[in-house]
Amino acid sequence: MDKTVNNKRSRGHSAGTAKLERPTRAEAEAAVRTLLRWAGDDPDREGLRATPARVVRAYEEWFSGYKDEPQDYLKRTFEETGGYDEVVVLRDIRFESHCEHHMAPIIGRIHIGYLPRNRVVGISKLARLVEVYARRLQIQEKLTAEIAACLDEVLKPHGVAVVTEGTHQCMTTRGVHKPGVTMVTSRMLGVFRDHAETRQEFLSAIGMRHAGSIVNGSG
Ligand SMILES: [Zn+2]
């Protein structure tokens, strides 16, 4: 029943990286020392001596999403709907991710909607799903699309809608320096893509009443 085969492509992210040999902790810390020197500082001065170890530990947290496979996780945790057949919306799921171009934080909110066929998933599971994808190097379009694809694959609902609002620190603190700019990406599948009314119902529920022009993100 589960057609995991046609989803190999979207799982390639973690599958592909798993093949790479992971450096040792000492190698990772040495790389941070190099970056400290690149920044113009002395890694041996007192305030920086423990920094490489701290940064490497922080990376374990920020990028912990590589060790989890969200599809497998959701497959274990969905429940039967018990006849519920209205749109389910979970809005304002906070996420913290890092852009794959600068490794700078992307911080924002994700809104998820789906119209169940016969499977639903608990709120905490959806939040966990977001977290697993967010704790990888990302671009916002891909993050949005991956979450939608995963829900679509596992729950097989009538449709999935995902809207992501993110602030990219690579845009706000460097380069073009545009504080306050929020990037909005969306992915609409099934009835949310095909029926303007259902899409509008979702956008209203997440407080984007006038966002009728939102279209699918790339990818
Ligand atoms: Zn960036």
Main sheet strand line-up: 5-2-3-6-7
Give Rg in angstroms.
20 Å
Bound molecules: zinc ion
Q: How many strand segments?
A: 7
**Helical element count?**
9
Residues in β-strands, percent: 15-25%
Low-pLDDT segments? 1-15, 211-219
- Overall shape: it is elongated
Structural class: alpha+beta
Largest sheet features = 5 strands, mixed
Q: Which whole number gives the mean pLDDT?
A: 87
Helix content: 40-55%
User: Distance N terminus to C terminus?
Assistant: 26 Å
Series of H and E elements:
HHHHEEEEHEHEHEHH
Layout of secondary structure:
Layout: H1 8-18, H2 25-39, H3 51-62, H4 70-77, E1 79-80, E2 88-99, E3 105-115, E4 119-120, H5 123-134, E5 137-138, H6 140-155, E6 159-168, H7 169-172, E7 183-190, H8 191-194, H9 196-205
Parallel strand pairs: 2-5
Antiparallel strand pairs: 1-4, 2-3, 3-6, 6-7
Helix pairs in contact: 2-3, 4-5, 4-6
The site of zinc ion (ZN) has 6 residues, from loops.
In short:
This protein has helices spanning 8-18, 25-39, 51-62, 70-77, 123-134, 140-155, 169-172, 191-194, 196-205, and strands at residues 79-80, 88-99, 105-115, 119-120, 137-138, 159-168, 183-190. With 219 residues, it is α+β, with helices and mostly antiparallel strands. Bound molecules: zinc ion (ZN).
Q: How is this structure best described in words?
A:
- With 219 residues, this protein is an alpha+beta fold.
- 42% of the residues lie in helices and 21% in strands.
- The protein is built from nine helices and seven strands; from the N terminus they run H-H-H-H-E-E-E-E-H-E-H-E-H-E-H-H.
- The protein has helices at 8-18, 25-39, 51-62, 70-77, 123-134, 140-155, 169-172, 191-194, 196-205; strands at residues 79-80, 88-99, 105-115, 119-120, 137-138, 159-168, 183-190.
- Strands 5-2-3-6-7 form a five-stranded mixed beta sheet, with helices on both faces.
- Helix 4 packs parallel to helix 6 (140-155).
